């Protein structure tokens, strides 16, 4: 038994089935990006107004990185909170537009500055190229803290799905010189175990949006060799220790092949002495936070993430 789907989630799945959309893995990565870019705007709600939005390029070890910088309404002009948001898409698809709605919500709800990088995608740029771009963007936020109006001690990382994977890995890296320190990690249905052996891959293999076949296609494009699957920078659940990592908010969806590994990571962090706020949406599907036009739970999830972030700072609502 998988339980009941929320009405909105069931409707999304029904529409998708009726459209008989071509599976992403049936074509090339470029074709998958074109299809995803064409469909994602229909799921996002109206663009919420923010104080400002700026597109620019920053420098990174792999070359220039395009980033989008949002300032929320009411954001302090200096020493405010900053958020690095990493978009989902299986490390293969997704861009600055596909997760624009979420970034705007975060900017306004948290009254913060959000920076979202258009990190390099696989398979043209396999692991760890995208991760390196994300780390470079976090370093940019620290180096440009005065210009951005942020306090380097108030930086958080966030992301959904593969972006949640990258955010979790950055939080682990931040314990050393590999990445700047972060104060919080906000993860929506993160990929934490690239072995793809949890029971969720059986229960929700087909019929709930993201399929097991698609997820394997994503992973196999991302990793260089099968050995990378066991690297904690691909599978953060396999890190030798999670001690001293930043407090975490972890959201999971009940009808999602990644649900078990998301919950397992929350448990692993808690057992390692890390403060965790875990939220579970039993009737939801993978990617629901990117479906704000139809899913009330989407904004609620971001609201809960912001509340958790504030509580980590000692300023609960």
From TrEMBL:
What region holds the Alpha/beta hydrolase fold-3 domain? 83-289
List, from the UniProt record, the residues annotated as the active site of this protein: 161
* Gene Ontology molecular function: hydrolase activity
Identify the keywords attached in UniProt to this record, alphabetized.
Answer: Hydrolase
What Enzyme Commission number(s) does the record list for this chain?
3.1.1.-
Entries under SUPFAM superfamilies matching the protein:
alpha/beta-Hydrolases (SSF53474)
The protein's enzyme class: hydrolase
- Family statement: Belongs to the 'GDXG' lipolytic enzyme family.
Alphabetical list of PANTHER family matching this protein:
AB HYDROLASE SUPERFAMILY PROTEIN C4A8.06C, ALPHA_BETA HYDROLASE FOLD-3 DOMAIN-CONTAINING PROTEIN-RELATED
Could you identify this protein by its name? Answer: Acetyl esterase
Q: Which organism is it from?
A: Rhizobium paranaense
């Amino acid at each position: 038994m998988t339980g009941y789907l929320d009405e909105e989630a069931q409707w999304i799945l029904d529409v998708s089935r009726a459209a008989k959309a071509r599976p992403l893995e049936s074509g090339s990565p470029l074709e998958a990006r074109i299809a995803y870019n064409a469909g994602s705007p229909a799921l996002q709600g109206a663009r919420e107004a923010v104080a400002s939005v700026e597109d620019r390029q920053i420098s990174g070890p792999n070359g220039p990185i395009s980033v989008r910088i949002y300032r929320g309404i009411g954001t302090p002009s200096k020493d405010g909170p900053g958020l690095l948001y990493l978009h989902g898409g299986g490390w293969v698809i997704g861009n600055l537009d596909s997760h624009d709605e979420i970034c705007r919500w975060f900017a306004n709800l948290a009254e913060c500055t959000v920076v979202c990088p258009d990190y390099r995608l696989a398979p043209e740029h396999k692991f760890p190229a995208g991760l390196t771009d994300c780390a470079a963007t976090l370093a940019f936020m620290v180096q440009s803290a005065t210009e951005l109006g942020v306090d380097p001690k108030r930086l958080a990382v966030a992301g959904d799905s593969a972006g949640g994977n990258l955010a979790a890995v950055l939080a682990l890296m931040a314990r050393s010189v590999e990445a700047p320190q972060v104060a919080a990690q906000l993860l929506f249905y993160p990929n934490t175990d690239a072995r793809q052996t949890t029971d969720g891959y059986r229960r929700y293999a087909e019929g709930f949006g993201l399929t097991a076949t698609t997820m394997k296609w994503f992973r196999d494009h991302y990793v260089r060799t099968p050995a990378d699957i066991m690297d904690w920078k691909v599978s953060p659940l396999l890190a030798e220790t999670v001690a001293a990592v930043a407090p975490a908010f972890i959201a999971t969806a009940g009808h999602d092949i990644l649900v078990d590994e998301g919950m397992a990571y929350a448990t692993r962090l808690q057992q390692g002495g890390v403060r965790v706020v875990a939220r579970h949406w039993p009737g939801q599907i993978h990617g629901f936070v990117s479906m704000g036009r139809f899913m009330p739970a989407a904004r609620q999830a971001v609201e809960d993430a912001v509340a958790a972030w504030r509580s980590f700072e000692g300023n609960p609502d």
